[in-house]
Queue: 3 jobs
Job 1
Amino acid sequence: MDEEIKKCLEVLRKGGLILYPTDTIWGVGCDATNAAAVKRVYALKQRDDNKALIVLLDSAEHLDHYVVDVPYMARELMDVAVKPLTIIYDGAFNVAPCLLGENDSLGIRVTQEPFTHKLCQLLGRPLVSTSANVSGQPSPASFAQVSDVIKDGVDYVVNYRQDEETQHAASNIIKLSSDGTFKIIR
C-alpha cells in the first residue's frame, strides 16, 4: 500500500489524475486545489462543470481549513454515521473554484478507509473523489466494472484492492446549512 500511495502522490503533485479505491466505490481523483486537474476530471467524466464534485479529507479537524462555518451538527452526524457520509457545506474555500456549487457549497467526506486516509494525510489537502464512470453511466461497484475510457483517461491506476469482489455503494449525502437545517440528498 505504501508504494501505491507514493506513486499517487507523485502524480497528484504534478496535476495528474488517479483511479483509486475509496471508502465507497472506485473513484477518479486529483488535487482539489488544482483547477486545471479538476477540469480534466470533468472532461474525462464528460460531466457538466455545474455539477459539483466531492472531496475527501483525512480528518474532521481539517474542515475549518475549507469551510467558513462548520455547523456543530456536522460533527455529530459524522460521529453517529454507520456508513460513509458526505456532507455538503455552504461557504467553502481554499479549493479550486470550479469545485464549488451554489452558495460556494462543497461536498466533503472524512475518510476512515486506510488507503484514502493515508493518501489524504500525506497529500496535505483535499482529494477530489468522484465515481469512476462517464456521466450518466452506472457507478462501478468494483474495479472490474470501471470502463476502459476511465482507465485510459487517468495518469495512474492504483493496483491496491483491484481484485476485491465485494460490491461497494456510494456514500450517503446530506446538505447541511449553517443554520442547522438539512436535506437528505442520497
Note: The longest strand covers residues 85-89.
Job 2
Amino acid sequence: MSGLAGRRVATVSVVVTDYDQAIAWYVGKLGFTLAEDVDLGGGKRWVTVEPGSGQGARLLLAKADGDRQVAAIGNQTGGRVFLFLETDDFARDHATMLANGVEFREAPRHEAYGTVAVFADLSGNLWDLIEPKR
C-alpha cells in the first residue's frame, strides 16, 4: 500500500445554478478564495474555490447541464450533510458566517467529536461547521 501514500481527495464537485452567483456566495459568505476560473467554451467554465487557508479540498463549481443535474442542485446527498468545513475557532467563524447571512439550520452543539452546527449553502446542500476536539 505504500504507493497510495501520496494520494488525497483534492477536488469535490458541487452542482450549481450559476457560476458567478456561486463564486459570490462561497467567496463572500464563507471567505473562500477563487482559485481558478477558466473558460472552456460553449458556456462551460472550470471554476474552483478553496478555503481561505488554502488547506483542504477545493470545490469545483459545476454548472448544471440537463434536467438530471438541475434536479440534484441542493440535494446532492439526499438530504444528509454533504461537506464538513473544519475550523480552529468555531465561535469566530460561526459569528462571521451569521453576519454574512449564512443560514444555519440549528444552534451550535457540543458533541464527543467537537463543536458543530449545520448550515445550508446557497443551493440548500447541508454542511457542518465543525471545530474538532483535539
Note: Residues 69 and 103 are 24 Å apart (CA to CA).
Job 3
Amino acid sequence: MFPFFAPQSLSDSAIIAASKIMLQVAKTDDIHPAESALIKSFYEGSISTASHPSFDELLAAADAYKLAASDFATEQEREMVVALSVMTGFADGTFSDAETQAVRDIAAALNLAPGRFDEINETIKDHMLAQLSHLPDAGSVAVVAKELG
C-alpha cells in the first residue's frame, strides 16, 4: 500500500486546503494541464458535498490561501499534503527546482521533522518507478529512474 494514503477521512476543509496547496505548487512554474487534471481529480473525487466551491473557484482563490499546519488534524495528514504536493510537481514530467523548493517550504510550514521532505520525495519516486517495473524494457525504466534523480 502507498504509505501516505492509508484509509482515513479528510475533512472537507482539509481537502480544500490541500487542493489550494497543490495548486500553489503547480503555479510555481506555470500550471501544466496534467497538474491541473491531477488536482481537479483529487478535489472532485474527495469533497463530500456540492455546497463547496467549484474547482474553478478554488483555482481562482488558491493564491490567497495562507498555509497553516492547524488546517490538518494529524501529522499523517500533513505528510499526505507534502506527498500530494510532490506528485503535483511530478505530474508534468519534471519536478522543477522551484517546485522542489516550494514543497520543501510547505513541509517546513507544516512542522514536519527536518529531512522528512527528502524521505517523502524518495518514497514517491520509488512508488512511481515500481509502477514501471513490470515493463520488459529495463533500459527505459533505468532512464526514467535516472531522470527522477
Note: Helices lie at 12-26, 33-46, 55-61, 75-90, 97-109, 116-130, 138-148.
